[in-house]
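[Discussion] Sanity-checking designs against the backbone

I'm trying to build intuition for which residues belong where. Below is a structure token string of 295 positions. I'd appreciate it if someone posts a full sequence so I can compare it with mine line by line.
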């Protein structure tokens, strides 16, 4: 265990110095047969605000898991006690950035009503819809500024339709899909009816977002309770085996290993059941691609 902890500490030091000095190792794997899947993974990383490759993301996650395993095995001196925290630590970056991705997409959805009002004001003041969209990407709500950052350049190079479709595909969100489709129709038809179309869209989007927020608030307590119930037993187990004594000796035996294995299965099963019960039904994308981004 001490040798393993020393090796992991050395690996961590090497990686840390490499990333600080800009000479981090660059691991590359052949991905020619999985190009479509990599596209989904890269989309997930873009939505999470990360400018890294999927392979590097999972490599760093694996290093974090190994470091956690080295630390917890050094404390408990028991392989099976150290394994569950290491697995959790490996997936912690994914959970963190998945939450961040959802927050970013939620911020964009919440900003669309204000953004649509901004567009209505711009069109009524005499701007064309493309110019109003460019103004929205600069002076609109911060979340939409980030989402539409590439729109002006794409619109000049490929046209307004292609630029809006690119924004829709990057966000991959049902609310944004509807907004973009209406914007495309308004751009193609034009005329004095455009402000009225955008106003009606803003009102309906506001109502939909208000309903989704109420559903999310009602399930918050259940999600927090599930996470606490999952984490507390493993924290107590780690503290019990942190020093020499009967608990550490027991969990080094075959019987202790079976207890940990069964406990891990029950914990994961309970987490899965609670997650399924508290999961909000995902709105399907009617417009655009239906595939969801995955890391």
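Best answer:
Here's mine. Compare freely.
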């Amino acid at each position: 265990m001490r040798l393993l902890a020393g090796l992991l500490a050395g690996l961590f030091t090497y990686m840390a110095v490499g990333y600080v000095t800009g000479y981090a190792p660059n691991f590359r794997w052949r991905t020619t047969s999985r190009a479509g899947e990599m596209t989904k993974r890269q989309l997930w990383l873009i939505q999470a605000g990360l400018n890294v490759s999927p392979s590097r993301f999972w490599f760093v996650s694996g290093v974090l898991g190994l470091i956690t395993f080295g630390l917890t095995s050094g404390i408990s001196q028991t392989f099976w006690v150290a394994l569950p925290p290491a697995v959790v630590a490996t997936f912690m970056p994914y959970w963190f950035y998945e939450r961040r991705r959802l927050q970013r997409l939620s911020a964009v959805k919440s900003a669309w009503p204000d953004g649509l009002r901004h567009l209505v004001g711009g069109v009524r003041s005499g701007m064309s819809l493309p110019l109003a969209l460019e103004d929205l990407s600069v002076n609109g709500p911060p979340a939409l500024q980030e989402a539409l950052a590439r729109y002006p350049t794409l619109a000049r190079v490929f046209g307004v339709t292609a630029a809006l479709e690119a924004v829709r595909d990057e966000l991959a969100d049902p609310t944004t899909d509807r907004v973009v489709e209406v914007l495309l129709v308004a751009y193609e038809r034009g005329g004095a009816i455009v402000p009225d179309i955008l106003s009606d869209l803003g009102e309906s989007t506001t109502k939909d977002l208000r309903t989704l927020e109420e559903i999310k608030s009602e399930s918050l307590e259940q999600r927090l309770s599930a996470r606490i119930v999952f984490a507390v037993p493993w924290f107590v187990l780690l503290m019990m085996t942190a020093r020499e004594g009967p608990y550490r000796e027991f969990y080094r035996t075959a019987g202790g290993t079976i207890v940990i294995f069964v406990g891990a299965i029950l914990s994961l099963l309970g987490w899965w059941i609670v997650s399924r019960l508290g999961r909000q039904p995902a709105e399907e994308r009617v417009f655009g691609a239906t595939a969801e981004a995955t890391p």
